[in-house]
Amino acid sequence: DEQLLNVNDLVTSFRTAAGKVSAVRGVSFSVNKGETLCIVGESGCGKSITTLSVMGLLPANGEITSGSIQYKGEELTTKKSEQMRRLRGNEISMIFQEPMTALNPVFTIGYQIIEPLKLHLRLNKKEARSRAVELLAQVGISNPDKRLKQYPHELSGGMRQRVMIAMALACNPSLLIADEPTTALDVTIQAQILDLIDSLKEELGMGVIMVTHDMGVVAEVADRVMVMYAGDVVETGTVEEIFSSPEHPYTQGLLASVPNVDDADAKLQAIPGSLPNLNEKITGCRFHPRCPYAMEQCSQEDPPQFKISSQHLSKCWLQQEVKVNDAKGRAYS
Ligand code: SF4
Ligand code: MG
């Protein structure tokens, strides 16, 4: 598998009134060509900040404090903003949750797709228009000629998200980052958009990073999963590993579903307590105030990543006991 992105020990901090706080605390992961990595966790866990760090789109008070982000072997953390802008136009694309805010209400869909094509790909008007028609068809929009003349408010939410995906694909990106792309959509449309992203990934061989708080979305599209909590990666694994043998108590909490609740945020609230504030000082495991398995050690020492399989890691002291038991030949017997 060809590696596209390799993030190593990324720390991203913000200057706040309360001082400097870390929103991402030493995150490592990679994304290969043709695979979808889902980053999952509650809002505020650092998943969006992780992807904004990769894109070079951190807010003004944010900065990458340490660590490395390599894209196709090139270090991104030292690139100038102009170089990052070029990369975002040509190599890495991003789609967001609410397409209405990303589309300009006063311009037609056609104008908004065609202008960047002229600018970034240096196509003339006719070429750009036919590429726009092709892109809309590619994302399953019928009657693209008619759609190009319409304004964002004339389209449904699902249709607007398709337009955003078409725009994201305009420059043939190798890496697509989708941050909660279906959260604002109803369930049926959500499934269609996820299918679309999945089939485009196959068709175009893109790497995809999907940011979500919804384990249903993860089950639908992920090849690999990275679970974040309070700025830490707490568990990583293949989608099979995460769903069939979740090891971290937080992941187990995410998966414990509340019957008859469609709202994923409500499901997350099934875990008592809430995310700590960024500037809250917590010693030991950052999940320990909410963890049903917390032991003495948990409030004192921050656990390392324990390796369960070649892909499966859990940042939890419970794994230490499993390992000790393994060594004694007692576990899983
Ligand atoms: Fe719970 Fe301790 Fe594991 Fe943290 S290290 S998740 S507190 S058992
Ligand atoms: Mg977010």
Automatic annotation (TrEMBL):
According to the record, the signal peptide region is none
The question of whether Membrane is a record keyword is answered with yes
The subcellular localization recorded is: Cell membrane
Q: What are the GO MF terms of this UniProt record?
A: ATP binding
Query: Topologically, how does it sit relative to the membrane?
Result: Peripheral membrane protein
Instruction: Please provide the record's keywords in A-Z order.
Output: ATP-binding, Cell membrane, Membrane, Nucleotide-binding, Transport
Q: Which Pfam families match?
A: ABC_tran, oligo_HPY
**Occurrences of domain ABC transporter (ranges):** 5-255
* Family of the protein in this entry: Belongs to the ABC transporter superfamily.
- The protein's name: ABC transporter ATP-binding protein
